[in-house]
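Notebook B, p. 112. Complex prediction, attempt 2.
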Amino acid sequence: MKYPNNLEKTYKNPLTYKNRGMDLEEYLNESNEYYREIDKALIYKKPTPIGVAEVSYSQRGKVIERGFFKEPSTLDYNGLYRGKYIEYEAKVTKNKTSFPLANIHPHQIKHIESVLKHNGIVFLIIKINEIVYLLKGDDFISYIQNNSRKSIPYEFIKEYGYMIKYSYRPTLDYLKIIDEIYFKEETYEKIEKN
Amino acid sequence: MKYPNNLEKTYKNPLTYKNRGMDLEEYLNESNEYYREIDKALIYKKPTPIGVAEVSYSQRGKVIERGFFKEPSTLDYNGLYRGKYIEYEAKVTKNKTSFPLANIHPHQIKHIESVLKHNGIVFLIIKINEIVYLLKGDDFISYIQNNSRKSIPYEFIKEYGYMIKYSYRPTLDYLKIIDEIYFKEETYEKIEKN
């Protein structure tokens, strides 16, 4: 059976259309939900920190009448994978040539350094030029320490980052990359045993 | 130098007065802040999950005009200690004879089971009869699985829980107990090496 070229594309890759409408955060939430469903990892997006200024009481409970968003000092997502602590931040930039560092607060940069020091797994997920990359925390920190630029060039992200491809479920299988980077030995051992 | 008995007490134990005014959550936040200061652990209270119903925009940014508190499906505190994932919930009960299980949502109970399965460290911190206890996640789950009561008797908490004593800094040194329970071997190895 033959379709005109554009239709065929739609059939072959049903995600293409969907991808356009959804943003990175939704994809990651969907992926984390899937990881929990198949009991692979327990990773959640942390609630946005909020300062509550006024409350009232209704029959359904406490209602916030006035609040404001606070600046986060940790990263957006954290949890537990293969017995290890994992934490990351997800950011989209419309910039084509670099990722502006203004996207990551100074408190968060310090926090990334601390997580590294305490042997946690920490990274950024950056969507740039419609491609999603995983950039390890240590590569991110080493860039900052060795450069005075206020953005990370796309070239650096392409060289040091790991591309996360879209798939059906999970939409963004970033743990596959985590396996390769952080659990390579264990993965090999498992293969050898089988 | 001598003081009347009541004054002497105030001097000897300045925490007594302070204890009355502060609640468990503040103590734990203070302790976690101290642990971060001395670079011992990275443990934070998660922000309360909030549903934002209405926002407005002011010069200072987005303002929440109406919101509501959501039911949490994970525990209140989580983080990283000695390379391990750690998560816990803190609860105070005014009940003297038992800890009502209504304090922990069914989703949270499932979550505790999952964290155990994924080799994370998970526990409850319960304040009952003015004493603070750490109850391991597996003891908590095993109580629930073997009993149909809707509360945990104080006797059980006294037998299986670990008392956390008040000190100056950190106010509640619960990681000392975590060391004893989960890192005993490593702690011994360290002592032997020295």
